[in-house]
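User: Predict structure, ligand N-(aminocarbonyl)-beta-alanine.
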Amino acid sequence: MAKLHFILPCSIPEVRRSISSRFTVQLNNLCSVLLCLLAIFPLSGSEQVAGFSPAAYGELECGSLSSKLLIKGGIVVNAHHQEIADVYVEDGIIVSVQPNIKVGDDVKVIDASGKYVMPGGIDPHTHLETEYGDIQNVDDFFNGQAGALAGGTTMHINFVPPINGSLSAGFEAFAKKAKKSCMDYGFHTTITKWDETVEKEMEIMVKEKGINSFKFFLAYKGRNMVNDEVLLKGLIKCKSLGALAMVHAENGDAIVEGQQMMIDLGITGPEGHALSRPPVLEGEATARAIRLAAFVNTPVYIVHVMSIDAMEEIAKARQAGQRVIGEPIAAGLALDESGIFDPDFTTAAKFVMSPPIRKSGHDKALQAALSMGVLQVVGTDHCSFSSTQKAIGIDDFRKIPNGVNGIEERMHLVWDTMVESGLISPPDYVRITSTECARIFNMYPRKGAILAGSDADIIILNPNASFEISAATHHTCSDTNVYEGKKGKGKVEVTIAGGKVVWEDGELKVVSGSGRYIEMPPYSYLFNGMDKVDAAYLSSLGAPVKRIKAAT
Ligand code: URP
Ligand code: ZN
Ligand code: ZN
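Assistant: Predicted complex:
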C-alpha cells in the first residue's frame, strides 16, 4: 500500500527528528488534488492512499471531504448526563444522538461498546509557537495540535502576545502561524502596557476578531508584567466589552527579591526557581486580582492555579458570590516539586515553569477543589522547550525558559487522576475538560457537547486500556516530557475532529490547514445579570447627598 509519509519538521533545529513512522500526514492542497484524482481514476486496491480510502470516509467530493460516521453503542457522556446511544455524524456536525440509528453502507461505523464517547477536550491555556525572551518554544501550531489530537484534545485557545505593544500586529502574526493548523483553535490576547491605542485595539479584537478574553501578567517584571493601575484599567475595559480578564497571579516585584536571595545564598540551580517564588506570592497576587475585579464588578479568570494559597482565595471569593474562575493545569494536578530538586540538571530544568509546581499536598488539594467545583476547568499551559534550550540557564535558574508540556497528556492524566481514582464521574470529567471551557469562552453548545448540531469533535475512551507517557513516543516536539514514565488507566483510542477520524489504532491522520479559527463572541454567561448588580450597587450608595445650602 502506498503511503504518504512526511517528515514533520519540528520548528527548532536541535529537536528536529524523524517522526514519520508515527504520522501519516496529508497536506491540504495535495489532499484535494489526490481526492479529485481518486474520484475520477480510482486506484486498484494495492495503490490506495492511507487514510483516504473512499470506504473509510463515505462519499467523496472534489474539493471537500464529505464524511459520514456512526459511533455505535458507546456510553455517550455530556456534562450533566450519560446514556448508551449511537452518534451519527455528517459533514463535521453531529446529526443525531439516540439508540439504534440505522445507516447505509456508505457510512463508516465505529463500535464503541463498553467505551466512553465524549466531547473532544478543549485546552483553554496554550502557548504554541511562542517566544520566551528570544527563545522560540518547540511546538508550532501543526506539531502541537497533532500531539493534542493523539491525546484527545480537539480544540485549544492560544495566547497571542502583542508585537511592540500592538495587539493587531500580534493577532495578524499568530493568524499566519496558525494557518497550518490541523484542529480548531481560538485566541486570547495579552495586555502588556496601557495607552489609548491598546484600549482601541481591545475593542477591535472583541468586535472584529473574535477574541473575548485578555490576559494580564502580574509576574515577569521588566517583560510582560503590568502594575495595578494597568490591571485596573484593563478590568474596566474588559467589563465594558463583555470580555473576560485572565490573570497570571504571582507578585513579580517580590519574585525579583526572592531570586536575588537565592543567588546570594549560592542557589543557582533549577530548585532556586521554585524557592524564589513560594505559594505566598501566588496567594497574594490572586487575592489582589480578585479584589480589584470585585471593585470593578467584572468576572476574572485565574490561570494556572498551582497552590493551596491561590485556590483558597478563589474559594473565598466564590463563596461570597464573586464571579471567579480558577484553572488548575495538568502539571499542578499530577506532579509535585520533587522533579525540580533532581540532581540531574536536564531533568530538573524541564520542570521549571511559573508559578512553580508545588510541594506534595498542593496537588491533592487542587484535585479536591476541582472535584467539588471550587476550581472549574483544567488547562495545560503547554509551552514546551528542548533540553538544549533549557540548558541556557545551567548556571543561573533565572535564564531557564519557563514552561512545560501537557497538551497531549492532559486528557489521560485528568481521567486517571480524577475519574479512575474515584474523585469525579465521567460527566464531571467532560465538564472540566471541555464543556465548562466552551461555556466560559462562549462557544457552547457548538463546542463541548455531544448534541445534535454540535461540531463533531469526539473522543472514544476505553476505560480498561492503559497509557504510558514518554518523550520517546509522544507526538509533540520536545526531547523531554515532564510526565516521563507515568502510567495510568483510560486510553483515548479514537479522536474525531471536525467529523474526521484523525487518531485511530495508534495512527495519526492529520491535515495541515484543516483546523479552523473559532471566533468567540463577548458576554458569556459570566456576564449574565451584571447590569442589575451594578444598578443595585448604584442605588444603594445613598449619594450624592442632597444638601441644603447653608444661609450666609
Ligand atoms: O512557565 C510558564 N507558565 N510559561 C508560559 C507562560 C506563562 O506564564 O503562562
Ligand atoms: Zn502564566
Ligand atoms: Zn501560560
